[in-house]
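Sample entry (77 residues):
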Amino acid sequence: MGILENIKNREDIKSFNIKKIFEDDHLICVDLEINNVDIEFYYFDDIGFLYNWEFLDRSFKVLLESIECYYDIKLDR
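Predicted structure, serialized as tokens:
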């Protein structure tokens, strides 16, 4: 289990930094750092949730789902 999977509410996020945004195969990819952990979100149609997670419940939910998906892919679960 990854350390970021322990995030359950907004207050659990102590630092959030988008490091790089780029496009691959016409989809958006993002390298970011959450709580001093590097993480990648690749091949998204829309990354608006990365800018709204602090304010919108739906965006925070998408962020949590994206973290879970990242670990599922990384750990090949």
